[in-house]
Fold this protein.
Amino acid sequence: LSKITVGEGLAPPAVELSPLGQCVKEQILALPQRYPSVHIDNYAIMPNHIHLLVSLHTAPGGASPSPTLFDVVRVLKSLSTRLSRDNLGNLPLWQRSFHEHVIRNENDYREIWEYIDQNPVRWDEDRYHER
C-alpha cells in the first residue's frame, strides 16, 4: 500500500503511496460523503495495513440509521478492492476481520491519535534495527 522512506536530516520518514495505497486513501476520504455521520479523524496507510480513527455520530435530522463501524469498514474494503482489481487482479487485498478499539475518554483518544501519527516513524525505526 505504501513505502516508508527515511527522512533527510531531521525530517521524519515519508510515506509514499503506491497506486493501490492511493486508491485506499481516496476511499477513506470518500467515506464521509457516503455516510454523513462518519468522520475520519486520523489515518495512516502503512506498507501492509492501515490505521483509522473513525468517529460515528448520530445521523442528522433522524435520517436513515447511522452505519456501524462494521458497515464503514465493509464498504471501505469492498470499494477499494473493486477499484484496485486493475493492479491486483483477483488477489485478496484485505484480511477477513479487523481489530477495533472503542475509545472511552479524551486520554484514550489522544493516545490512539499519537499512535497513528507515529506509526510510520516506528515502522522505519523497526526496519532500521532489523538490519
The chain has four helices and four strands.
